[in-house]
């Protein structure tokens, strides 16, 4: 199956309240996720997360849709135009 590389950036504006739900979504897509970096801004109550994943367009859209449906979470995605063969 053809897949693409995607970089998803997410801002959690109420990180403490929504981090469990956010992490649950990430756990459901762990087979597709190849990297994650989070930067907490404790005083502001905000977290910025960057996720790199490889998946079909359906998988990428499902993942970002679930993240974006969480209250106080904004998501932006960049997806490679080049299709790649499935990688390990």
Structural write-up:
InterPro entries: Acetolactate_synth/TF_NikR_C, ACT-like_dom_sf, FeFe-hyd_TM1266. It comes from Fusobacterium gonidiaformans 3-1-5R. Pfam families: TM1266-like. The chain has 88 residues and is an alpha+beta fold. Helices cover 30% and strands 40% of the residues. The chain has a single domain (3-81), classed as 2-Layer Sandwich (Alpha-Beta Plaits). A 4-stranded antiparallel β-sheet has the order 2-3-1-4.
Q: Characteristics of this structure?
A:
88 residues, alpha+beta, four-stranded antiparallel sheet, 2 helices, elongated
Summed up, the domain count is 1
Largest sheet report: 4 strands, antiparallel
**What is the CATH top level name?**
Alpha Beta
Total beta strand runs:
4
Strand-pairing-aware structural class: alpha+beta
Organism: Fusobacterium gonidiaformans 3-1-5R
Protein name: Putative iron-only hydrogenase system regulator
List the helices and strands and how they pair.
Blueprint: E1 4-12, H1 15-28, E2 33-41, E3 46-55, H2 57-68, E4 73-79
Antiparallel strand pairs: 1-3, 1-4, 2-3
Organism: Fusobacterium gonidiaformans 3-1-5R
Protein name: Putative iron-only hydrogenase system regulator
InterPro entries: Acetolactate_synth/TF_NikR_C (IPR027271), ACT-like_dom_sf (IPR045865), FeFe-hyd_TM1266 (IPR023860)
């Amino acid at each position: 199956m053809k897949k693409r590389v995607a970089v998803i950036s997410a801002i959690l504006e109420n990180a403490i309240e929504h981090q469990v739900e956010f992490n649950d979504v990430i756990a459901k897509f762990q087979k597709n996720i190849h990297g994650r970096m989070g930067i907490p801004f404790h005083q502001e109550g905000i977290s910025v997360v960057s996720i790199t994943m490889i998946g079909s367009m359906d998988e990428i859209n499902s993942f970002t849709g679930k993240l974006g449906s969480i209250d106080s979470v904004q998501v932006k995605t960049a997806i490679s135009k080049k299709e790649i063969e499935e990688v390990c």
